[in-house]
Amino acid sequence: MRFDRSSFFKYVVEQIINCNDLYNISNYDTNLLKYKVPIEHKELSEVFKHDATSYHHKSIISLLEAIDGIMQKKFSWATIKLYYSVFYSLRSLFYARGFAFYRSKSMYILELKPGNSFEKLRGKGYANDHEATINMFTQKYKDDFILSNTIDGINSLEWLKKRREQINYLQLKFLDPNPPYFMKELAKLSPSDLYHMIQEFYKEDVYIFDKDHAILALPIRQISRTFSELKVARIEMDYGKEIVDHLSRILSDDAIISLIKQKSLQ
């Protein structure tokens, strides 16, 4: 099976560890730990920018498909996609800020500064991509606005992860077309009311930490904030007409798609 991996993963495999056996990639960790970011690292910097835009694109598609799911009363998969929209957005944000994750048998992180080496992330909180992303963000950016309050007594990212786990693993069955408790207020909205509510999510902070709205408000604000950082970092997001047209086809509601594109794409 052939598919494109992240540009950073390919760069590590081809340029840093010279791996020709992906099934035994952990055998090349010795080469990984010898690596230091060179003073001139324009090519690697472009790799970071490329993956920042790729993950941002995945976060937007996940968000739009989730909103479409809410409108069609497909609440279970909407919940999962909303979680993934934030996960992808955080990965994009890490790349924009000069950090990249790499996983073989262990999890590593690299900061894009001359002389820096790969740092091995130790502990149960870094066992996989999802835990590493959320826990590293919580550790490194503990004063970030997204973490400035709690939902049901836990930080917002952990709350969102638990909602995904509830749907994926804990519930005996999907509740569709009935919404889970954290989507009941959103389920009551007509498309026009949902549009106006999304506008409020962009303007008012209170919804991000409100358990009745956080499942959608948190992804919307996080993606918008990542988008702003990509622009500040002058990372171009030219997705091409085909991809932009595809985004427009995901939702039937022109007002909502225009709002999301304005805040997170253009």
Task: Write a structural description.
The chain is mainly alpha-helical. 58% of the residues lie in helices and 6% in strands. The chain is built from eleven helices and five strands; from the N terminus they run H-H-H-H-E-E-E-H-E-E-H-H-H-H-H-H. It has a three-stranded antiparallel β-sheet, sandwiched between helices. Strand 4 and strand 5 form a beta hairpin. Helix 3 packs antiparallel against helix 9 and helix 4 packs parallel to helix 9. The longest helix is centred in the first third of the chain and has 30 residues. The chain starts with 6 loop residues before the first helix and ends with a helix.
Produce a short descriptive summary.
With 266 residues, the protein is mainly alpha-helical. It has helices spanning 7-16, 29-34, 42-71, 75-96, 129-140, 156-170, 184-187, 191-203, 214-232, 240-250, 254-264, and strands spanning 99-103, 107-111, 119-121, 150-151, 154-155.
Task: Name a few traits of the molecule.
mainly alpha, two-stranded antiparallel sheet, 11 helices
Reading the helices and strands in chain order gives HHHHEEEHEEHHHHHH
Poorly predicted regions: none
Tell me the distance between the termini. 34 Å
- What's the helical proportion of residues? 55-70%
Shape: globular
Number of E-state strands: 5
**SS field, number of helical segments:** 11
* Largest sheet report: 3 strands, antiparallel
Tell me, rounded to a whole number, the average pLDDT.
90
Secondary-structure content class: mainly alpha
In the sheet with the most strands, the strands line up as 1-2-3
Beta-strand residue fraction: 5-15%
Gyration radius, rounded: 19 Å
